[in-house]
């Protein structure tokens, strides 16, 4: 495809998506669920064939010198395929959000007014690397009655094409429009620039990938962007609290996995419990090789600890999302200071308090301005599956439209439904 | 103020708004309601003084040659002031949406997950002409726990300044930060460009005014815009329906007032009832001097009608929001054609069906892709007061975040609240 034809190609995708979106929106619950079950079946039946297509991507990636972890992220193992197939079946089993009417109430004029949950229309998703995202996004679009345009990474193009064919087969089987889910067939980067500037055809764009990708898309988009930026998450150990619980949670939040956005990057400790708590948790971190960027008070409280990597924290550390075995640690005067610190240095993603004080818990929940606020549990729980959303299209760090893990609801909006008996405005 | 200092001035407004927003967000329900009642009292006590300030604007407007209706829109009569004071008291009496927790459910891991309604943070509102919008926006900000920056029209600057002083007095009386509501004190247009490109300080911008203003703001904004564009609203008279009801509603929807965005601009009539219905409604419109832009079938059905202004409709007419005593009229084959026409030519604002057929009503509600969909009632009901929202900050024609009349809820978002007992992620 030459550069000249990219706008035309995207226009075609857009027109087809818009046309498909009204058919998707009016499709019955039964046919959308049938489509999801058909997709699960096709994924299982095609495991061998999919691995052949996937192999082409893996070979190309290896030849191009991609790192082993990067190549691994591309791999469609039978286990990965079974997991996404299960995801489709779980979605099919979930109640349908579309068409739900909430808050229907009679007004003084006699009309009854409520709100109906409806699909957004068309969403575009731009993602990198992992081809299973193709199925995750497609299945969420199908369940939510949206049409979507998927633009995967060039390194997974063969796998994505094969997966998208199965999706379209499942759509057709269920009597839904094949254009309900379209994969961009070219790896030309100009496509992204087009997709994010077609408000007539695309109602929202969801980027999933590195910060660079998300910032580029946010800067250039002329359609709403559902975006996830930093996850500089905190655990605040309050006074009073159950210190054993605090140690367990602070350990889990940091070390259960280092790369997720909901892993904790900063530990705040109330002055009253610092002397007792910090040596405990520092020993845990030291044993796991976690480097600690500490304030002066924290260093004093931790004291001499063989094998511990203690570094003086700089101002920049409080802002930093490490995504690595590093944590910043600060002693704070108490709840007020903790809330102020989190709201100033945090990224409004996920923050937890460990406390026994009911009033402190209530204030933390109310006043910490983050997408997820937690009491006595690990920030690592902040995801769509753990929240019972069934699946997750992404995590939003914005306040507009959707905050935090975004499931089906984030792909819908509420329109007003008004029922009358001939009432008129006086 | 020289041009050089505008960015600095806006930065100051932004910093102050952000600081005030956290105090507003944590303010008690009682103090926010107290503030609203104080504002109502101050408005009533200051009616005479406000009229003096308003008089300066009126004199300037008259001298500048503004049309009489434009000058009228600026006028703060005792009745207008009493209405906005009542609006504040009504808001004070409404239940508090902030802090409400919905959907709290236990998850398999043991954590409980729900969502809490919280303020957006800081919104900026850019509006033209009517100074009472200053109070409407301020009172909605106070009720919803947001801070706001208001930028009114230059023609109402003296009135707006006087009103804003009362708002800040009411905030102070109730122990809330005076910076919770800030009015831009200069009429320099460069301010708008700054306000809509400060994502660090402004979480959303709400333009209210002409289409030109809204398009300029949408094009330049780097923060989410809650915007209202066209209102090309339809009444579809179905077969079968109560024709007397259809005539009453079609009359009201068009003629009760011509200028509002929820007035109907287009009448669609099912072929089966066209011969009977069109002469009836055409006589009503003719008597009120409403020009009819008709399709060939409509012209035939209407026949000879003394005094009627019938004009052949062009393709452009189906797209047009007249905001005037003009209506486009088209005969359609039935429900499918009506829905297709509305979704293609309409502006996704408000559309009504008049029908006796339950299945048609259900399909219309589901398939018409508009912010408000109505059965057997007038499109003129599409506003915040009639919907029971208490007040309205604007009407959204977007699908993202909020659709249709936007009240308190549109100034809030939901954050996740997670309660645990030391659970960790496995």
Structure description:
Two copies of one chain form a homodimer. Chain A is α/β, with parallel strands linked by helices and 426 residues long. Chain A is built from 14 helices and 16 strands. Chain A has a seven-stranded parallel sheet, with helices on both faces. In chain A, strands 5-4-3-6 form a four-stranded parallel sheet, with helices on both faces. In chain A, a hairpin with a 7-residue loop joins strand 14 (394-396) and strand 15 (404-406). In chain A, helix 3 (47-63) packs antiparallel against helix 4, helix 3 (47-63) runs antiparallel to helix 7 and helix 11 packs across helix 12. The radius of gyration of chain A is 24 Å and the shape is globular. The mean pLDDT of chain A is 94. Chains A and B meet through helix 1, strand 2, helix 10, helix 14 and strand 13 of A and helix 1, strand 2, helix 10, helix 15 and strand 13 of B.
Keywords:
426 residues; homodimer; four-stranded parallel β-sheet; alpha/beta; globular; 16 strands
Low-confidence stretches of chain A: none
Instruction: Report the major sheet of chain A.
Output: 7 strands, parallel
H-E string of chain A = HHHHHEEEHEHEHEHEHEHEHEEHEHEEEE
Arithmetic mean of pLDDT of chain A: 94
Got a strand count of chain A?
A: 16
Strand order of the largest sheet of chain A: 10-9-11-8-7-12-13
* Largest interface, Cβ cutoff 8 Å: A-B, 67 and 67 residues
- Number of discrete helical segments of chain A: 14
Query: Helix/strand/pairing class of chain A, anyone?
Result: alpha/beta
Shape of chain A: globular
The percent of residues in helical segments of chain A reads 40-55%
Q: Radius of gyration of chain A over alpha carbons? A: 24 Å
Distance between the termini of chain A: 60 Å
């Amino acid at each position: 495809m030459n550069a000249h034809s990219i706008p035309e190609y995207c226009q075609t995708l857009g027109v087809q998506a818009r046309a498909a979106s009204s058919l998707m929106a009016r499709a019955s619950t039964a046919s959308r669920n049938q489509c999801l079950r058909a997709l699960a079946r096709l994924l299982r039946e095609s495991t061998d064939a999919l691995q052949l297509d996937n192999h082409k991507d893996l070979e190309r990636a290896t030849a191009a010198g991609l790192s082993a972890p990067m190549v691994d992220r591309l791999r469609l193992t039978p286990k990965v395929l079974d997991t996404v197939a299960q995801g489709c079946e779980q979605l099919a089993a979930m109640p349908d959000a579309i068409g739900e009417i909430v808050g229907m109430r009679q007004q003084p004029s006699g009309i009854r007014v409520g709100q109906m949950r409806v699909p957004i229309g068309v969403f575009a998703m731009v993602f990198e690397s992992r081809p299973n995202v193709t199925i995750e996004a497609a299945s969420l679009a199908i369940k939510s009655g949206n049409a979507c345009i998927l633009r995967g990474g060039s390194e997974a193009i063969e796998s994505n094409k094969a997966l998208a064919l199965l999706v379209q087969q499942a759509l057709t089987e269920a009597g839904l429009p094949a254009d309900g889910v379209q994969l961009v067939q070219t790896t030309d980067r100009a496509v992204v620039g087009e997709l994010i500037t077609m408000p007539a055809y695309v109602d929202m764009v969801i980027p999933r990938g590195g910060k660079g990708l998300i910032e580029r898309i946010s800067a250039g988009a002329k359609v709403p962007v559902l975006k996830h930026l930093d996850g500089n998450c905190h655990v605040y150990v309050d006074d009073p609290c159950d210190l054993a619980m605090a140690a367990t949670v602070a350990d889990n939040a940091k070390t259960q996995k280092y790369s997720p956005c909901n892993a904790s990057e900063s530990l705040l400790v109330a002055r009253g419990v610092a002397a007792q708590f910090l040596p405990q948790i520092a020993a845990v971190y030291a044993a796991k090789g976690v480097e600690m960027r500490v304030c002066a008070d924290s260093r004093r409280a931790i004291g001499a600890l063989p094998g511990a990597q203690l570094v003086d924290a700089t101002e920049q550390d409080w802002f930093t999302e490490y995504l690595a075995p590093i944590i910043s640690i600060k002693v704070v005067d108490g709840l007020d200071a903790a809330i102020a610190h989190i709201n100033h240095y945090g990224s409004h993603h996920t923050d937890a308090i460990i406390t026994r004080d009911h009033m402190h818990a209530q204030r933390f929940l109310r006043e910490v301005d983050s997408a997820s606020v937690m009491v006595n549990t690990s920030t690592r729980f902040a995801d769509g599956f753990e929240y019972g959303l069934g699946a997750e299209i992404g995590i939003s760090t914005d306040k507009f439209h959707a905050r935090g893990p975004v499931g089906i609801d984030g792909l819908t909006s509420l329109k007003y439904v008004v029922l009358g008996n001939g009432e008129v405005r006086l």
